[in-house]
Design brief:
Blueprint: H1 8-23, H2 35-50, E1 64-69, E2 74-79, E3 82-84, E4 87-90, E5 97-98, H3 103-116, H4 129-132, H5 137-143, E6 145-146, E7 149-150, H6 157-162, H7 191-206, H8 237-244, H9 261-275, H10 279-288, E8 297-298, E9 317-318, E10 321-322, E11 339-341, H11 343-354, H12 362-368, E12 381-384, E13 389-391, E14 400-403, E15 408-413, E16 418-423, H13 431-443
Antiparallel strand pairs: 1-2, 1-16, 3-4, 5-11, 6-7, 8-11, 9-10, 12-13, 13-14, 14-15, 15-16
């Protein structure tokens, strides 16, 4: 017998669809969709991405995309180029890639699931770090200091998710300023500047079999937090932050927006404590395995060993260096962006997320996409959710999702009902640039 009573998750998916239908009729099949035109438009976009620059194209080496519009039963995939720079083999739709900050949405999903289960305490997302007891008070007192006042203990889980904790970003900021103070360039004392400084030595070391390179930041496998060595900045990623910039926070919690990767490292540690498993174990149990995401994993993950799921990884360009082939160690990303996946599997996850399959209560998804407007976000964003953002988009209609620093993205377009995931596999590309082209191509196919 068929059960006609929707589960809580299905009911939430229906609620979301009703909300979309009420505001954007085009997402509910109320206009005609020209599949032939859509594929032709997308073909043009994709060919422009790979066309050489001297021929007017973007000159990308190995982009891959999957586009799905469930209401229209529309599917489009594209992969081009060579997957790895120094190894023969074509890029395919099933190739894995480092998603970078797209992984924040996965961390946020697990945190929200744990909150639903009461594992963050009675205050849920508004629980403070001092109430969670993940860190000792001495650590919290050093975590976030602004104008001589320590705010670490009072930072809440919600503020970490929203990037409103006031914490700096360990990659682009340093104790003397933020990346904005350096005109968008990495702050000299941040991790990204140190990675860039070590790149020449790293590449030289690749040519010398006798070179160990263990002292290079580009080869370091980072712990996330080592409480036994709180004063050693290289004992763990949170150790690095506390010692390098914890005494010079950006603003008091809840008073500003400032994008902070260390906030999602802290959320990963919270998830492990509340969930009783490694972050990779939580991803597998709660997201990857239930959704059949057999090519997705948390890079450098242990318990279970992430290498089990590494099948066919692809390079991304890092300032002219093929990062994967060159062996650049990316363990610093972790809860802030360590997920490796494929374009189809990202779409599978995002659809399950927005249709309510991953939460028990409708209110949880509502909180996730309750877009917060801050005075300063970025020129591309119009709202911040919990692990998600809403772009300014085209004609005032933005897409929902997340972009990653290595050129990838995972998006939903409420106007067409399209799920768009993939990567241009290049650090120097503006992720928003390709998304606007793809979304525009799809919207032009509506009559």
């Amino acid at each position: 017998m068929t059960n006609l009573t929707p589960t809580p998750g299905q009911a939430m998916g229906l609620a979301l669809l009703v909300m979309l239908c009420a505001t954007l009729l085009t997402a509910c099949g109320q206009t005609n969709f020209d599949e032939t035109a859509a594929k032709s438009n997308l073909d043009e976009v994709m060919q422009n991405l790979v066309l050489a620059k001297d021929q007017g194209g973007e000159g990308l080496q190995n982009p891959v995309f999957n586009i799905s519009i469930p209401n229209e039963q529309f599917e489009y995939s594209f992969a081009s180029g060579q997957a790895l720079a120094w190894t023969e083999g074509p890029m395919t739709i099933d190739h894995q890639f480092h998603t970078a900050s797209v992984g924040k949405t996965f961390t946020a999903t697990v945190i929200l699931q744990l909150s639903e289960e009461g594992r963050l305490g009675p205050n849920g997302l508004d629980t403070s770090l001092s109430q969670l007891e993940v860190f000792d008070i001495a650590t919290l007192d050093r975590l976030h200091i602004v104008d001589g006042i320590s705010y670490g203990p009072e930072i809440t889980v919600r503020q970490l998710l929203l990037h409103s904790s006031g914490l700096k970003d360990q990659y682009g900021d340093d104790a003397n300023g933020s990346k904005e103070d350096y005109k968008g360039r990495p702050a000299p004392g941040g991790l990204l500047a140190r990675l860039v400084a070590d790149m020449p030595a790293h590449m030289e070391c690749l040519q010398n079999p006798a070179c160990d390179g263990g002292e290079l930041i580009t080869r370091k496998t980072w712990k996330h937090w080592d409480p036994a060595q709180p004063d050693d900045p290289y004992a763990g990623m949170l150790n690095f932050y506390i010692n390098q910039m914890g005494h010079a926070g950006f603003c008091a919690p809840g008073t500003c927006f400032h994008y902070s990767d260390i906030g999602y490292v802290i959320l990963g540690l919270i998830a492990e404590k509340a969930g009783g498993k490694s972050l990779h174990g939580l991803f597998r149990e709660r997201i990857f395995d239930p959704l059949g995401m057999e090519r997705s994993y948390l890079a450098y993950g242990v318990d279970p060993d992430a290498s089990t799921w590494e099948v066919a990884i692809s390079d991304f360009d890092l300032g002219g260096i093929p990062a994967v082939s060159a062996g650049i160690n990316l363990s610093f990303d972790w809860g802030g962006g360590g997920v490796v996946s494929t374009a189809p599997e990202l779409n599978r996850y995002f659809r399950a997320l927005l249709e309510g399959e991953l939460f028990s209560n409708p209110e949880t998804l509502e909180q996730m996409i309750d877009w917060q407007i801050f005075p300063v976000i970025s020129e591309y964003e119009s709202g911040i959710g919990l692990g998600l953002t809403r772009s300014k988009g085209l004609d005032g209609q933005g897409v929902w999702g997340k972009f990653g620093a290595w050129g990838g993205g995972m998006l939903f377009d409420p106007v067409t009902g399209a799920y768009i995931s993939g990567t241009v596999n290049s650090r120097i590309r503006l992720d928003e640039h390709w998304s606007i082209q793809i979304v525009s191509a799809l919207r032009k196919a509506r009559k």
